[in-house]
Design a protein that fits this description.
With 408 residues, this protein is mostly helical. It is built from 19 helices and no strands.
Length: 408
């Protein structure tokens, strides 16, 4: 590891990246919108849990949130490759903001139909890959290569900050103003992101170099020959299955086993995000270990946090586990994303990030599907053990020899 690599974690790197007006606008708008999204998950989950058969319906809601991500990723790639990312991001904000706003509008005119939260979740999931792929694909065009770690850490910090503010504030506001009005606040956050994206001065178009210089099969071959990309993607997919289970377990615990109700749910999700926030800062430092070993140890530590659900009914003990999951998973994201940016050829970067993030974000529905029948039986120990094993067994792939060799 070079001296320059360790210098990336200095405050000067943050200042350089944030001094860029366009990056600063896009990052701030994304963070505000993500905070609104954190409030939305809590609000939709609470609406669904209030319906008859709420536990089973909660699993369906999580599937609606996550399953359309795969189909959306297939649509998003061509859009990001063909059109200016500023306009694609703004259009996404209009569509998802309108979908979220439909619930408070329906509630204001009478009563929102029971199916509407699921439809809103499906639209959210279908378009979720627009910012998840669009923002990182734009980062190399907005910052210098030497500042990639700092920019990726700032993206993770945005996720963490939004995750702390959104769920905790959403949980508190539900008791005061009701879930539909919390959704209205998220709709407004989309407007903020749309304005920020359109205010970016630098065109974010792919340009001729990102056009189809090679066939799709050749592009896929470049990615599949890189064992690092393959094993990290598979490991992250498995970890996201465990997190998909957690998205069902957390509201179920708050509703049935933890004191505080929606506030307890906000506490758990905020603890997860607070861990991600601290972990993103730690991710600016790259350890001297082999990158795959560093990722493996971080994933093993994060996986251990899932066992903390066994501390129920003590909300702060469970929250400590959520904190550990975020604390150790965030550096995984920062390290892996910077290494992918370095290893993936520039002309393939947009398509590659869309494909990789789509694969990684498409697996939580499997976790939700696995968790729902376990929770219907009330077997918390089985749920905890399942999450731990799913999250940690892929560590063996990361530790396998030869995983970090460059493609060739």
């Amino acid at each position: 590891m070079s001296t320059q690599d360790h210098a990336l974690g200095t405050p000067a790197a943050y200042r350089r990246v944030l001094a860029d007006r366009d990056f600063r606008l896009l990052w701030a708008g994304s963070t505000v919108s993500l905070a609104g999204d954190g409030m939305t998950f809590v609000a939709l989950a609470w609406l669904v849990l209030s319906q008859p058969g709420g536990t089973a319906r909660l699993g369906l809601l999580t599937v609606c949130f996550t399953l359309p991500v795969f189909a959306g990723g297939l649509l998003v790639g061509p859009l990001l490759d063909r059109f200016d990312k500023r306009h694609v991001l703004a259009a996404d904000c209009v569509l998802r903001g309108g979908a979220v706003a439909s619930i408070p509008l329906a509630a204001a005119s009478g009563e929102a139909p029971a199916w509407l939260p699921f439809a809103v979740a499906a639209v959210h999931g279908l378009l979720k890959m627009v910012p998840l792929a669009g923002f990182p694909a734009a980062i190399p065009d907005l910052v210098r290569r030497a500042d990639l770690d700092a920019a990726n850490a700032l993206e993770a910090l945005g996720f963490g900050t939004a995750g702390v503010v959104g769920p905790s504030l959403g949980g508190l506001l539900i008791a005061g103003v009701g879930a539909p009005n919390v959704l209205a606040i998220d709709a407004a956050s989309y407007l903020v992101f749309a304005v920020a994206a359109l205010a970016v001065r630098r065109p974010l178009t792919p340009g001729p170099r990102a056009d189809a210089a090679t066939t799709p099969a050749a592009r896929l071959s470049v990615l599949l020959r890189d064992r690092f990309l393959v094993v990290t993607t598979l490991a992250f997919m498995a970890f996201n299955v465990a997190e998909g289970m957690l998205l069902v377990v957390a509201p179920w615990l708050a509703k049935t086993h933890l004191p505080g109700g929606s506030s307890a749910l906000g506490l758990l999700l905020a603890a997860l995000a607070a861990g991600e926030l601290a972990g993103a800062v730690a991710g600016l430092w790259r350890p001297r270990l082999n990158p795959l070993r560093a990722l493996a140890f971080a994933q093993l530590a994060a996986g251990g946090g899932f066992l903390a659900v066994l501390l129920t009914p003590h909300p702060w003990g469970v929250a400590a586990g959520f904190l550990a999951i975020g604390l150790f998973s965030a550096p995984m994201t920062v390290w892996a994303q910077s290494l992918r940016m370095e290893r993936i050829p520039g002309p393939l970067r947009g398509r590659a990030f869309r494909a990789l993030r789509t694969l990684m974000q498409a697996t939580p529905p499997l976790g939700a599907a696995l968790a729902t029948p376990i929770l219907r039986e009330g077997d918390l120990a089985l749920a905890a053990a399942s999450m731990f094993l799913v999250a940690t067994v892929p560590v063996l792939m990361l530790l396998a020899p030869g995983s970090s060799r460059p493609p060739g």
